[in-house]
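Table S2 (continued). Query chain:
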Amino acid sequence: MKKVTVIELFAGVGGFRLGLEAGQDYEVVWSNQWEPSTKKQHASLVYEARFGTKNHSNADISEVPTADIPDADMLVGGFPCQDYSVASTLQNAKGLIGKKGVLWWSIHRILSEKKHPPKYLFLENVDRLLKSPSGQRGRDFAIMLKSLEGLGYAVEWRVINAADYGMPQRRRRIFFIGYHKSTPAHAALLKTGGKDWLHTTGVFARAFPVLEISTKTKAFSIAQDLVGLSENFNLGQQASPFENSGVFVGGHVHTEKTQADHQGERTVLGDILETGNVPEAFFVSPDDYPKWDYLKGAKKEVRTAKNGFEYHYTEGAMVFPDALDKPSRTIITGEGGKSPSRFKHVVAHKKRLRRLTPVELERLNMFPDNHTQLQGISNAKRAFFMGNALVVGVVARTAKALYDLMQRYS
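Corresponding output:
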C-alpha cells in the first residue's frame, strides 16, 4: 500500500506530523500554520526549520483558496476550541455561515469545496468540546458531527489521557476520525455497529484498548438540521449526552463511558528529567520559596473583587514539588518564565527547586529534544509551544492503527 498523503492544518510546531511520519506510512504534502495574534510567526518558523518550507503555508487558513490546497488522502489538525454555532444557512448553496473567524468552518469549507475530498479525517481538540457551551451541553460537538455527516463522513471519537497508556504527561484530549462514505471503512463501521467498533474493531479500540465494562451507554439520533441544532440541541440540560467514546454513523450516535486498559510500561516525570547541568536560570530563588508555597498551598480566605464585593475563596493544596514517580500534570501555555505560579511545574533537584527546561517540556509531549530550539525563540515561547502541543505518542499509535484499518478494509 502506498503512503497516505496528508494535509496538516493548524500545524503548530509539527506534533501531528511527527506522530504521522514516525512510521513510513504517511507523507504530509501540504501544511498550514498561522498565528493571528502575533506579528512574528514563531511556530511557523520552527515548523519550517524542522520540515522545510516546501508546500508549507503561513497564511490565515480562512483566506487560503481551496484551489491552492492539493488533494490528499487525509486531513489532520488540532483546531481551536471556539463557539461553533450556526447563524444561518446559505440558500441554494453548500456553504454555511458560522461566526466569523471560527476555524472549524474553514475545515468545513475545504471539505465541501474539494472535488475529491480526503477519505479520512484525524482531528484533535480539548475534551470540553463534548460539553460546550454551558447552556446547551454538547451542542458544539453535535453541530460538528452533523456537519461532517452532511459532507459524507461517519465519525468515531475517544477522549484519551496520554498517561493512561504509559506516556509521561496527564494530558486529556479528544481525538476523532472521520471516514468518508466512499471508503470500505465507512461501510464496515455501518455494518459492525457502535459497541463492537468501540471495543474491538475500531481504530481507537486497537490503539488504546478499553476494559470490557462500560459504565454508561447511550444511543440516540441527531435529526435536526444545523440551525435547529444550534438553537435547540440539549437546551437547558445539566449534562452532555456525549460520553468519552462514541461513533456517529447513519444519523445515529452510540456513545459509552469507557475506561483505559493498559498493562504495559509507564513513563513518569522523573524519567524525562535532564541528567546534566541545568542552567541556573531555571532554579527558583530561595527568596521566592514563600510565594511558591502560598500559590501551591491550600487556601481558605476572604477576597475582595474589583467592585468591592467580598467573597470566600477556597482551593486545595497541590503536590509541591511535583512528584517524580508519577506522570506530570498537564503542561499549560504559561509554563515559561521565572514568576511564581500555581500551575507551573517545579521539581526538586540537588536539594534545590527548579522549573522544567524546554527540553523536558518537549519530552513530556514526546517531541525530539530541542525540536523547538531556534535562534530568536525564547525559552518562554518554547514552553508556550508545548502548552499548545499534543502528545506525539498518541498520534503515532492512532496513525498506525488507522493505517492497519485502511489495509484491512482496502
